[in-house]
Write a structure and sequence with these properties.
It is a single chain. This protein has a 38-stranded mixed beta sheet that branches. It contains 13 helices and 70 strands. It is elongated, with a radius of gyration of 39 Å. Strand 66, helix 7 and strand 67 form a beta-alpha-beta unit. The chain is an alpha/beta fold. InterPro entries: AAA+_ATPase, AAA_lid_6, ATPase_AAA_core, Beta_helix, Carb-bd_sugar_hydrolysis-dom, CbxX/CfxQ, CbxX/CfxQ_RuBisCO_ESX, P-loop_NTPase. Keywords: ATP-binding, Nucleotide-binding, Repeat. It holds the Pfam family AAA. Belongs to the CbxX/CfxQ family.
Amino acid sequence: MDRPNEIGDNPRTTRWGHDNAMAQGTVQVTHTGTSRWRRRTGEYASLAAALEAAADGDVLTVAPGTYRENLVVHRAVTLRGSEGAQGSVRIAPVDGVPLTVRASAVVQDLHVEGQDAAAPAVLVEEGTPELLGLRVVTRSASGIEVRGSARPTVRRCSVDNPAGVGIVVLDGGGGVFEECEVVSAGQAGVAVRSGAHPRLERCRIHHAAGSGLTATGEGSSLEAVGCEVYEVRGSGVQVTGRATAHMTDCDVHRTTGDGVTLDTDAVLTLADCRIHEIPENAVDLRSRSVLTLTRTTVRQFGRNGLSVWDPGTRVDANQCEIFDSTGDYPAVWVSDGATAVLDSCRVHDVPDALFVLDRGSRADVVDSDLSQVRNTAVSVSDGATAQLDDCRIRDAATGAWFRDHGSGGTLNNCTLDGNRTGVIVTKGADPTIERCTVDSPSEAGVYVSAGGRGSFLDCRVTGSTGYGFHVIDGCRTTLRKCRTERCARGGYEFADGGPDTAYDSGPLVEDCTSDESGGLTPPAAPEPVVQTVSHSPGLLGSIPGQRSTEQEPLIAGAGPPEPTRTSKAVLGELDALVGLDSVKREVRALTDMIEVGRRRRQAGLKAASVKRHLVFTGSPGTGKTTVARLYGEILASLGVLDKGHLVEVSRVDLVGEHIGSTAIRTQEAFQRAHGGVLFIDEAYALSPEDAGRDFGKEAIDTLVKLMEDQRDAVVVIVAGYTAEMERFLSVNPGVASRFSRTITFGDYGPEELLRIVEQQADEHEYRLAPGAAEALTQYFTAIPKGPAFGNGRTARQTFEAMVERHASRVAQVADPSTDDLTLLYAEDLPELP
């Protein structure tokens, strides 16, 4: 065997133009070829000399030490550190590129250090080399740079580069990075640009001062499998400028910016990924970018889980889960003409689930669950459209809210369960709701106001503690084949919209039913009649369910009546109401105080200051709304109020979805009531026991200030259950101080309920047959008096049920007499509920 050649210690100048300092160790070159020439086998004192002597296939084993050389590997050799001494070989020149690879070489177990801010630490320019176990600790422009035709395989390498990019692939470069780690980067962790297309497998990128992963430029693409991006001061993943990326089974978390950002025709696919602990948007895309998510989870985000902007921008999510928001923003935000598709997804434990804004914006949601939503599950506004099919919306303040003109879409075969309000339609919005069920809402099942429209086809509301369908302001809503069951305040409530309401406005009702009444019939052909209050449905030919259960007549005219009656006449109408003796005394005493005060002022005497704001407490159906309306008319007749009209609102009319909007909505309601009475039903809902970050407090604070600032222009009456209102006033002493007195409305007794039935019978030209009155008294004594008991409404519903049963009986008589057509018998009574 030939004796190894020893290379001398004298340094020499290399072709890179840098003086090579003496290495601390030697480089052993082992010739692996079959040639009998063995000159290349031996030990060399510098890497440059060993590389110069080596040929394709040779193995260069580098002894431990620091080599301050700029190495260029231009042959298919193997360059490796000493076995068992990983990291002991340091390549650390003063400047320039420490290691350049231009061949299909193998470079293994080296520690590379660079100091040149204008150059990479490791540069791969050609071939298909393998870089194994490199540790790059540098302050260079980039830790590892791949360019041109190079297609390296980089395994188990680490890059620590606080001055620049961790890994950059550009100019059409590619390659595979396996189990690599970017420990730190002063800019992006991994950057792909100018048509490059690397693949990352099981890599970790963290502590980058820029994006974790970034791909930009047409033709650029990035594929990542099983990777983790975290502790990034910026976006976790950024794809821009027509670049594409595919990520599978990856984690993106603990960023300071957005989790994933797409911009300008970017395309990204995420499959089986996890995006979490993001203080900003978990995913933000705009400018015609396209995102596809499959089986991906998005959680713990401070702003939007998905934020989608601009025409042509689209997100398709399938079998994804978005949950556990840490901020106060909608989980999915679609605006400025963008499109979002959610298929078999779950969105839960968020402030709002889906907001779709602006004309041209659209959301399609199929077979998905939206639950545990603090505010609104689906909000559609500013001309946007939402289509929900076979979805389930549970435990939200509002299930779906179509907010304004041009906004609409369809809810088809959806279930809305346990929400405060199922569907809200306001300000000209016109959605179509088909074959949907609203179950157990704590307020209205469906609420339409402020010019909202909407078509409700074959829908059902069950178990509401408020109304089933509550349509006010003369809204032109269409109800066809709808049904209500077990709605505490009534199945259907239709109320007028005031003096500006068109005479032919109001809901269109066809083939609707309720377990409390027969079929519902729409108003007769357009005539200048405004439905101001509740009256009987079905066979009685009128629309049911006005605001509570009060005995209010049908008022002719184009709106609420002008205050032409005297206070005496109005008090006479109050006295004619069944029961309410204590209420009548309280109102008469208050009226007397106001009237005497007015006369004293006319006489030049001092008049006692009378607070006109009132608290009404009691169960539903005890006449609170009727008395509020009459009270307003009395005050107008006495000159205390300009108009005396009644504006009825509830929490849903006053409380907005975000900070600031509540005050605006409360002010708008107060302005509508200017010169009249603002009646806040179920006012205790503004201050729930588990308020947390609830915006009801903002509504209360605004009301208190307006009641003081405009105390002569608006009278406020708050109403609700007795116990809840006592709690409401005790929790908000500022509110309590604004009201002069509390008037309690007691439940009706059996005799009073009988009198209401007798009044209804007389009004509709029916008579009670002998024994029917006694049967009714027994019926009202036995009927359960639980939360669903409706007082006056129950009496009217009982009468309506008797009329229906009477009709079924008399229809079988060939030639009925007048008695047959008018007499109601005990057997016409319905079964006890």
